[in-house]
From TrEMBL:
<dbReference type="Pfam" id="PF01420">
    <property type="entry name" value="Methylase_S"/>
</dbReference>
<dbReference type="InterPro" id="IPR044946">
    <property type="entry name" value="Restrct_endonuc_typeI_TRD_sf"/>
</dbReference>
<feature type="domain" description="Type I restriction modification DNA specificity">
    <location>
        <begin position="16"/>
        <end position="188"/>
    </location>
</feature>
<keyword id="KW-0680">Restriction system</keyword>
<dbReference type="GO" id="GO:0009307">
    <property type="term" value="P:DNA restriction-modification system"/>
</dbReference>
<comment type="similarity">
    <text>Belongs to the type-I restriction system S methylase family.</text>
</comment>
<dbReference type="InterPro" id="IPR000055">
    <property type="entry name" value="Restrct_endonuc_typeI_TRD"/>
</dbReference>
<protein>
    <submittedName>
        <fullName>Type I restriction enzyme, S subunit</fullName>
    </submittedName>
</protein>
<dbReference type="InterPro" id="IPR052021">
    <property type="entry name" value="Type-I_RS_S_subunit"/>
</dbReference>
<dbReference type="GO" id="GO:0003677">
    <property type="term" value="F:DNA binding"/>
</dbReference>
<feature type="domain" description="Type I restriction modification DNA specificity">
    <location>
        <begin position="206"/>
        <end position="381"/>
    </location>
</feature>
<keyword id="KW-0238">DNA-binding</keyword>
Length: 408
């Protein structure tokens, strides 16, 4: 028989009748900040003492830091050693983040270490704190970089179950995190394996040909999107022919997008029509992302930020092209970074047309494409499993941290 959960109204919502609500200030005995040794003094840096900044919030239980300091740097700065297992939060830049380091570390001025009273378990506090991350970010202030004062931090209130239930909740959520982390590690491993396979399979061999991109497309098969003036926002209509955008190539989907043109505009820009098995390429901002148009899609045209690549199937396998074109050696040839800075551009059409594509026989192309596509399918399945696991964990947090589902 399921035990009925008797709830009560509190300032943070409905909670079980035997739970309390406490402010972080009433749960912490100390909140201590850190500091940065002088960058000018070389003797303070590259020692053996881990020194943590917001850049090191790479996992929930990290083991290393990007930078280390020396004993001299520790003694001559405001930083301090945080013993392994203590909680560290960000009060500037990465608001709402919290970790528990597995080794002794020092911290900079953007971080604080929290010492808790015995009435709350560390692991339970971690999950409760992550559950209010959005509220913490909203509370942050600052014109350029968000920060949170200790007073504001202390004012946040969280639910406080009895200690045995805190332990049970933390253990359940920790198990969910462990499963998620194992999937992330497996995906990372599979990505490395695929990277090695690409290196082996796509590196040109002695018996391969090398053809220019313009030689493996049909006549007129490289089509840069229309100039901005030909496709202004005032031409868009509520329904009609779809206008494909950068995000369709970046996220590999024909379903994204909300812009359409009428029949007259579609016919006027008919040269830019998208067809089955066309590859659309992102050409502005995020450059080099490639997507093959499937059999079923909405009839439409590309906008000015895309380029169509229409291949000659007698010379190159579509699947092989999708892999070889995303390979680093090809990507480096099509991106123009001669101007410097973060914004890159696609090379000019003449240079793009002359991009060299290594070509084995069609039979070998198909073999290579099959191997790499099978790897992609496996990775996509794992990514889907990871996404579902994250949603399950989020649902668990909503249930367990409000007491709607009780483990004791």
């Amino acid at each position: 028989m399921v035990k009925e959960i008797v709830m009560k109204q509190t300032e943070i919502g409905m909670l079980p009748h035997d739970w309390e609500v406490e402010s972080i200030g009433n749960l912490t005995s100390k909140i201590i900040g850190g500091g940065t040794p002088s960058r000018i003094v070389k003797e303070y840096w590259n020692g053996k003492i881990p020194w943590m900044t917001v850049k090191d919030f790479t996992s929930f239980n990290p083991n290393f830091t990007q930078e280390n300091i020396t004993e001299l740097g520790l003694k001559n700065s405001a930083t301090r050693i945080v013993p392994a297992g203590n909680l560290i939060i960000a009060t500037r830049i990465a608001l709402g983040k919290i970790v528990k380091y597995n080794v002794d570390v020092t911290i900079n001025q953007d971080l604080k270490t929290i010492n808790l009273f015995p009435k709350i378990k560390k692991d339970y506090f971690i999950y409760s704190y992550r559950n209010i991350e959005e509220k913490i970010i909203e509370k942050g202030s600052g014109s350029t970089v968000l920060g949170l004062s200790v007073a504001d931090l202390n004012s946040f209130r969280i639910p406080l179950p009895p200690l045995p239930e805190q332990e049970a909740i933390a253990e359940a959520l920790s198990d969910a995190d462990a499963w998620i982390e194992s999937l992330e590690q497996l995906i990372a491993k599979k990505c490395l394996i695929k990277q090695g396979a690409m290196q082996e399979l796509l590196s040109p061999k002695e018996d391969w040909e090398v053809k220019k991109l313009g030689e493996v497309t049909i006549d007129g098969g490289l089509i840069r999107g229309p100039f901005g003036g030909a496709l202004k926002k005032e031409f868009f209509v509520k329904n009609g022919y779809k206008v494909y955008e950068q995000k369709n190539a970046i996220y590999k989907s024909v379903h994204l997008g909300k812009y359409f043109v009428d029949t007259a505009k579609f016919k006027e820009l008919g040269r830019f029509e998208v067809k089955t098995n066309d590859f659309i390429l992102s050409c502005s901002g995020t450059i080099g992302k490639l997507f093959r148009i499937p059999q079923i899609f909405q009839k439409g045209i590309i906008n000015q930020a895309l380029l169509i690549i229409r291949l000659n199937s007698g010379l190159i396998d579509f699947g092989y092209f999708g892999h070889i074109f995303q390979y680093d050696t090809i990507q480096s040839k099509i991106i123009d970074d001669t101007q410097g800075g973060a914004m890159k551009n696609l090379v000019g059409m003449s240079e793009f047309r002359n991009t060299e594509i290594p070509l084995p026989s069609l039979t070998e192309q198909i073999r290579i494409a099959t191997i790499l596509s099978d790897m992609d399918t496996e990775l996509e399945a794992l990514e889907g499993q990871l996404g579902k696991s994250r949603k399950v964990k989020q649902g668990m947090m909503q249930e367990l941290l409000t007491g709607r589902t009780r483990l004791i």
